[in-house]
Amino acid sequence: MSDNFDVLIEQYTADGGGKIVLDLGAGEGKYSLKLARLGFRVLAVDLDTERLEKLREQAKRQGFDIQTQQSDVRNFDLTKQQYDFIVAVNSLHFLEKSEALDVIRRLHGALRAQGKLLMSVHHQSGKLFEHYKSHNSMIEPGSFVISPDKVISFFTEDEIKAALKGMKIDYLGVEQFTDQSKNQNVIYLLARKIGN
């Protein structure tokens, strides 16, 4: 992530004191732990129970009480509670595009007024997208099968904007990211709910 995006994240999270965060696709808790350190009350959701166990162990060692829940983000009930802040970083692009866009649309209802969203997904450009496009079966535009039970999806800025109706986008940028020697373009987004 760029320095500008990191600064925006710091500004977004400056007022954590006791506010409730939902970390969707939390994995081992990079953002959950950071937000707990800033005073947020965190619910970390992930499908992988082993990763959630590692998160719980790290939280305990660091003295944080992070709630965890094993769930597929597609089926997680976003109507039970409203959140001050939702994090969905490096998780939604592992769903079929139509499923991910459905989750993104439902995030609006899970946020309190002025609630904030931090999100990242793969952009529909760059070497990683071209690799999957030329070597994998497409199941819907922008979504590819990478193994019998795994998919990867790529998005455009316009698709993300359309899914975020009722949200004010404070930052939407496409940045190149290198991971395991693969260059990929990633959409980074900061948005907030306007109105109720």
Automatic annotation (TrEMBL):
Record's protein name: Methyltransferase domain-containing protein
The keyword Transferase appears for this protein: yes
GO MF term (any one): transferase activity
Species this protein is from: candidate division Kazan bacterium
Coiled coil: none
Regions crossing the membrane: none
Methyltransferase domain boundaries: 21-115
Pfam family, one: Methyltransf_25
Keyword annotations: Transferase
Top-level division of the source organism's lineage: Bacteria
